[in-house]
């Protein structure tokens, strides 16, 4: 018997299945619709930006770096464009084979390979790294013909920094170098990473570092439409880069060259200021270095040679070198006595050739005449005994309190980085300097040597020059400054940098007149008389000799028995003209001995240049370099003519403030204007050593003046 189907049950099951299927379809369409709403509404801007990003590429336009000029508009740092051969390591299968093949087309030296290896270690694999810089047109053509055979290798046009005067003024101008991780982090903290897109180099030293923001400019962008393969199709929009501003220095590069030439191969420093406004006219540290060596990365071999130099040419001695001032400290001690009322100018101190204190004999130079000393004669003849006794009367803290406002042992605030404080001793300083309790106590005998600029005293030539300028300016202290202003490269508008108002130290005019008269006496009948013989102006100055090493009180200084680096330093401070000073300076020649014989002749030629427009004759220049000069010899040359030759003979030199296209440095290193005079230059680490700690021993030996 046939069983009949239950139609109602079948329809019920069918309806259930249709309903479930419909719900499933509805759910699926709901998910699709919700996803569509999410993508089209909520993610619209984000996805639109991504799509635009896939369609376009943003290419940074690196701005031209600003120029650096001296006070006369002579270009000290400029730019030039050149082709570079660059490799992106991530796109190259075998670097060694690729470089070997490239050598058949382009001249690649071992130093290029060493530099490439170092840069590769510092960079990411997807970054383009230069293998050769400054390619010739012929080399560019040869590579372009074989470009298809070198994936990951390309030629790019880059701007390079050029320092047309090479070593001249290098400590002031500074140099640029590849941005390291620390500098990247600092840029990010300042929220300037967008302005450094595409930029590989940054100022590392001197004005290049301190005025980086003004020199760098504003990075531009170029929006390009690209194909799916990443090929640029067309330009969509452009925001041009803004070149960096021109930075104008107060430096006179002609004077700078004169001083550096007079030092010759000797070490030392000179700072010359305009006492009326604090402008730096010369800022010399010898030996110097060639900043062009760092522009496209210094190779390892050269770097090693720099590190092993004992002369440390990258150490800015004018800014970071600290020395005892020697007898150049005595005029300031005299001012302290007058201002505090500790001693009148007519007070007589007998100088028997030595000073006894606490059982110790503090000696005087063998050539010191001695006898009855008033303040004027004590400065003119540089009596040690007079100032030994004065230091004892004043005490260390009174000396400290008077000298600090003059700038000794203080940060002057000059507008380049790296200045050190030096040491202006006091009882509080000693307690903080030494760790052992028994060394923290100040003994009265330690004060005696301070009076003649020895003992713990340790100052920079910048500090001594500022103090000299303050004295020459009747107690008005100006902050030293190297940069007078900037010039907008686009509008050509000049923007002078505001100078801080001078600080009046409150010196009595009659006291200043007494000390300045004595300093003039030094050049007319004192220790530097022979040097200033025949000068057509009056100047004031003070010679000094600073110990490089401590000598026991029973030992006698003997130059011939000492190593060259252990001999005394020659120091001189001066200003001119005496009645209305326009220049004040401090100079030290390391391990050269007597200040009047070596340092003062340099000061005389500086004054002749600034006040008389005179440049030393060739024979006179040789005598100064050899340390055998007094008054100038031979017929002086005209400073204007020598400066004209300086500009004409130097690639890229110009007396115009307009942007200059500098000539690239010669690859072979034969351009005398761009290569160092010596191969053994100091390491970069020498540029920022820790401040020198003065040894606790107290110099008691006899010092010439």
UniProtKB/TrEMBL annotation:
<comment type="function">
    <text>Catalyzes cross-linking of the peptidoglycan cell wall.</text>
</comment>
<keyword id="KW-0812">Transmembrane</keyword>
<feature type="compositionally biased region" description="Basic and acidic residues">
    <location>
        <begin position="668"/>
        <end position="683"/>
    </location>
</feature>
<keyword id="KW-1003">Cell membrane</keyword>
<feature type="region of interest" description="Disordered">
    <location>
        <begin position="647"/>
        <end position="705"/>
    </location>
</feature>
<comment type="similarity">
    <text>Belongs to the transpeptidase family. MrdA subfamily.</text>
</comment>
<dbReference type="InterPro" id="IPR017790">
    <property type="entry name" value="Penicillin-binding_protein_2"/>
</dbReference>
<dbReference type="GO" id="GO:0005886">
    <property type="term" value="C:plasma membrane"/>
</dbReference>
<dbReference type="Pfam" id="PF03717">
    <property type="entry name" value="PBP_dimer"/>
</dbReference>
<feature type="active site" description="Acyl-ester intermediate">
    <location>
        <position position="327"/>
    </location>
</feature>
<keyword id="KW-0378">Hydrolase</keyword>
<keyword id="KW-1133">Transmembrane helix</keyword>
<keyword id="KW-0997">Cell inner membrane</keyword>
<dbReference type="InterPro" id="IPR036138">
    <property type="entry name" value="PBP_dimer_sf"/>
</dbReference>
<dbReference type="InterPro" id="IPR001460">
    <property type="entry name" value="PCN-bd_Tpept"/>
</dbReference>
<keyword id="KW-0961">Cell wall biogenesis/degradation</keyword>
<keyword id="KW-0472">Membrane</keyword>
<feature type="domain" description="Penicillin-binding protein transpeptidase">
    <location>
        <begin position="268"/>
        <end position="607"/>
    </location>
</feature>
<protein>
    <recommendedName>
        <fullName>Peptidoglycan D,D-transpeptidase MrdA</fullName>
        <ecNumber>3.4.16.4</ecNumber>
    </recommendedName>
</protein>
<dbReference type="InterPro" id="IPR005311">
    <property type="entry name" value="PBP_dimer"/>
</dbReference>
<dbReference type="GO" id="GO:0071555">
    <property type="term" value="P:cell wall organization"/>
</dbReference>
<keyword id="KW-0121">Carboxypeptidase</keyword>
<keyword id="KW-0645">Protease</keyword>
<dbReference type="InterPro" id="IPR012338">
    <property type="entry name" value="Beta-lactam/transpept-like"/>
</dbReference>
<dbReference type="GO" id="GO:0006508">
    <property type="term" value="P:proteolysis"/>
</dbReference>
<keyword id="KW-0573">Peptidoglycan synthesis</keyword>
<keyword id="KW-0133">Cell shape</keyword>
<dbReference type="InterPro" id="IPR050515">
    <property type="entry name" value="Beta-lactam/transpept"/>
</dbReference>
<feature type="compositionally biased region" description="Pro residues">
    <location>
        <begin position="688"/>
        <end position="698"/>
    </location>
</feature>
<dbReference type="GO" id="GO:0008658">
    <property type="term" value="F:penicillin binding"/>
</dbReference>
<dbReference type="GO" id="GO:0071972">
    <property type="term" value="F:peptidoglycan L,D-transpeptidase activity"/>
</dbReference>
<feature type="domain" description="Penicillin-binding protein dimerisation">
    <location>
        <begin position="61"/>
        <end position="235"/>
    </location>
</feature>
<dbReference type="GO" id="GO:0009252">
    <property type="term" value="P:peptidoglycan biosynthetic process"/>
</dbReference>
<dbReference type="Pfam" id="PF00905">
    <property type="entry name" value="Transpeptidase"/>
</dbReference>
<comment type="pathway">
    <text>Cell wall biogenesis; peptidoglycan biosynthesis.</text>
</comment>
<dbReference type="GO" id="GO:0008360">
    <property type="term" value="P:regulation of cell shape"/>
</dbReference>
<dbReference type="GO" id="GO:0009002">
    <property type="term" value="F:serine-type D-Ala-D-Ala carboxypeptidase activity"/>
</dbReference>
């Amino acid at each position: 018997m046939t069983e009949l189907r239950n139609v109602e049950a079948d329809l019920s099951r069918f309806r259930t299945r249709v309903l479930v299927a419909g719900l499933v379809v509805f759910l699926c369409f709901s998910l699709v619709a919700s996803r569509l709403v999410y993508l089209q509404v909520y993610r619209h801007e984000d996805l639109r930006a991504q799509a635009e990003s896939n369609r376009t590429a943003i290419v940074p336009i690196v701005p031209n770096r600003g120029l650096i000029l001296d006070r006369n508009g002579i270009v000290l740092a400029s730019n030039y464009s050149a082709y570079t051969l660059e490799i992106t390591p991530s796109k190259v299968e075998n670097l060694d084979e690729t470089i070997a093949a490239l050598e058949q087309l382009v001249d690649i030296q071992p130093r290029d390979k060493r530099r490439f290896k170092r840069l590769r270690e510092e960079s990411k694999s997807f970054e383009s790294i230069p293998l050769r810089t400054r390619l010739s047109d012929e080399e560019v053509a040869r590579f372009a013909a074989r470009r298809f055979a070198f994936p990951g290798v390309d030629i790019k046009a880059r701007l390079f920094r050029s320092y047309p005067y090479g070593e001249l003024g290098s400590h002031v101008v500074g140099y640029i170098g590849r941005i390291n991780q620390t500098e990247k982090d600092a840029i990010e903290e300042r929220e300037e990473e967008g302005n450094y897109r595409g930029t590989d180099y940054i100022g590392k030293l001197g004005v290049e570092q301190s005025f980086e923001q003004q020199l760098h400019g504003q990075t531009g962008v170029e929006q390009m439409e690209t194909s799916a393969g990443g090929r640029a199709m067309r330009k969509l929009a452009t925001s041009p880069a803004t070149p960096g501003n021109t930075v104008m220095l107060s430096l006179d590069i002609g004077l700078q060259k004169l001083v550096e030439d007079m030092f010759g191969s000797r070490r030392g420093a000179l700072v010359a200021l305009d006492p009326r406004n604090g402008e730096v006219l010369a800022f010399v540290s010898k030996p110097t270095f060639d900043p062009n060596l760092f522009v496209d990365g210094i190779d390892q071999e050269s770097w090693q040679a720099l590190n092993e130099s004992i002369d440390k040419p990258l150490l800015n001695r004018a800014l970071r070198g600290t020395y005892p001032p020697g007898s150049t400290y005595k005029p300031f001690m005299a001012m302290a006595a007058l201002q505090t009322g500790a001693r009148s100018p007519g007070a007589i101190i007998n100088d028997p050739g030595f000073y006894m204190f606490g059982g110790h004999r503090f000696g005087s130079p063998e050539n010191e005449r001695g006898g009855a000393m008033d303040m004027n004669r004590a400065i003119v003849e540089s009596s040690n005994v007079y100032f030994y006794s004065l230091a004892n009367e004043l005490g260390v803290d009174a000396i400290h309190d008077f000298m600090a406002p003059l700038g000794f042992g203080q940060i002057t605030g000059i507008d380049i980085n790296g200045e050190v404080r030096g040491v202006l001793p006091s009882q509080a300083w000693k307690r903080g300097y030494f760790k052992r309790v028994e060394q923290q106590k100040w003994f009265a005998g330690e004060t005696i040597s301070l009076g003649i600029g020895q003992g713990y005293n340790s100052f920079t030539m910048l500090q001594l020059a500022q103090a000299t300028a303050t004295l020459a300016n009747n107690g008005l202290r100006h902050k030293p400054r190297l940069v007078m202003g900037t010039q907008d490269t686009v509008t050509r508008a000049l923007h002078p940098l505001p100078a801080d108002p001078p600080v009046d130290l409150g010196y009595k005019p009659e006291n200043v007149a007494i000390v300045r008269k004595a300093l003039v006496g030094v050049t007319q009948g004192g220790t530097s008389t022979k040097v200033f013989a025949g000068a057509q102006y009056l100047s004031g100055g003070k010679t000094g000799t600073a110990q490089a090493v401590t000598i026991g009180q029973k030992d006698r200084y003997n130059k011939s028995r000492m190593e060259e680096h252990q001999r005394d330093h020659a120091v001189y401070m001066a200003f001119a003209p005496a009645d209305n000073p326009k220049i004040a300076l401090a100079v030290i020649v390391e391990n050269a001995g007597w200040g009047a014989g070596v340092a003062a002749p340099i000061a005389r030629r500086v004054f002749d240049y600034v006040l008389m427009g005179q440049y030393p004759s060739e024979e006179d220049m040789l005598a100064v370099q050899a340390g055998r000069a007094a008054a100038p010899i031979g017929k002086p040359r005209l400073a204007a003519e020598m400066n004209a030759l300086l500009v004409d003979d130097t690639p890229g030199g110009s007396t115009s403030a307009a942007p200059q296209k500098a000539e690239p440095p010669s690859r072979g290193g034969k351009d005398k204007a761009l290569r160092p005079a010596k191969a053994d230059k100091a390491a970069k680490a020498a540029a920022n050593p820790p401040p020198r700690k003065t040894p606790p021993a107290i110099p008691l030996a006899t010092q010439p003046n």
